[in-house]
Specification:
The protein is mainly alpha-helical. The protein folds into 2 domains: 42 residues; 70 residues, no CATH class. The protein is 65% helix and 0% strand. The protein is built from 7 helices and no strands. Helix 1 packs antiparallel against helix 2. 0% of the residues are buried.
């Protein structure tokens, strides 16, 4: 159903959303929270118009999970230069992983000057679908 929601189901979900988030309670704090969520209705129900949009932010969370674990274990970096190096290598590693390229082979290719593996930016451009 997520890939092709019917107009009736969309309308039903929007009605349920309105009913839930316009409910008045005896708690002012809860009423304010419900009102704030209701203001975000277009964004929160965007998936009804664009079913290709993920319903979670796990992709973003997965991108930083490795960094957070290392920071907890090592106590972070000692200076700004170390932080920038760590962030750069983490970014390269994640990008290589998403593109199906061995991070280690990519580093060796760059350090050795062989340049047999194209730049990551070129690979991303090649794989990107044209925007219609």
């Amino acid at each position: 159903m997520k890939e092709n929601p019917s107009k009736e189901k969309k309308a039903e979900l929007e009605t349920c959303f309105d009913k839930l988030f316009t409910t008045k309670t005896c708690c002012i704090t809860l009423d304010l929270a419900l009102k704030r969520i209701h203001k975000n209705k277009p964004e929160l129900l965007l998936v009804l118009e664009r079913p290709d949009i993920p319903l979670h932010n796990n992709l973003s969370e997965n991108d930083i999970r490795e960094y957070v674990k290392k920071r907890k274990v090592s106590g972070s970096t000692r200076n700004d230069h170390g932080r920038r190096c760590r962030d750069t290598f983490t970014s390269l590693k994640k990008t290589c992983r998403k593109l199906g390229i061995s991070f280690w082979k990519y580093l060796i290719d760059r350090v050795s000057g062989c340049c047999e593996i194209p730049l990551l930016s070129e690979i991303i451009r090649q794989r990107a679908s044209p925007i219609c």
